[in-house]
Amino acid sequence: MDYGHYQxxxxxxxxxxxxxxxxGEDGKLPAADATGHGELAAIWRDIDKDPxxxxxxxxxxxxxxxxxxxxxxxxAMADRFEDRARVWREARELVMNMVxxxxxxxxxxxxxxxxxxxxxALMADIPVAARxxxxxxxxxxxxxxxxxxxxxxxPQLCGMAKAKLHLLLSDEISGEEAERIGLVAKVVxxxxxxxxxRELAAKLAAGPQTALRWTKHSLNHWLRMxxxxxxxxxxxxxxxFGSPEMREGLAAVQERRAPSFPPSPL
Length: 266
Known about the structure:
It is built from 13 helices and nine strands. The chain is of the alpha/beta class.
């Protein structure tokens, strides 16, 4: 399998049956532009078909896991229906392609993991976080519904009460707190993050691949059953990108000030 056409992602084959999917450029916090967002959706199909990969570790660069979408991408979605429609399709494919990927996915979450990057982190089969990682679903802070993965996975991981608390407030969750509430599978010290993920990957790559893949497939039916809730949340998120609330949220981010959201018409 050739991954050379990917511009914002690269695959490193680190051991037999094991690959690392690395997001972004060296030394920079990964952020998905229009090209990168589409690549994050598509690459799981290639990994699924790659006979040399049994387990993949997805990670960012030295500065963190992911900053989410770029402001240029967000602005384009606010301004153009065509961009919203494209990102809606890609966001759905990203989540469902990870659900349907037969290979085991481990995420190594360090530093900030925001927005669409957080979707990749938490949709992994085994999310592992550094203690000082910062998990942020900032959708409501921006003025749109939490739609790109939250409805399908958060209630399954940490329960409805905690999901509502953190998604409605858009607050920051440390890696340690994420492990305490069940949002990630394991938390470790920062220097132990990659060694721990690589050790897990080695154990899984040495295991019975058909049994592991069928176990993943079976467990992921819980996520497939939540598909209608996910589709609804994603559609409402995209609808919100044309709202006055979102425009105020985006302006507040660009101007580095607190937002002053207008009254809701609902």
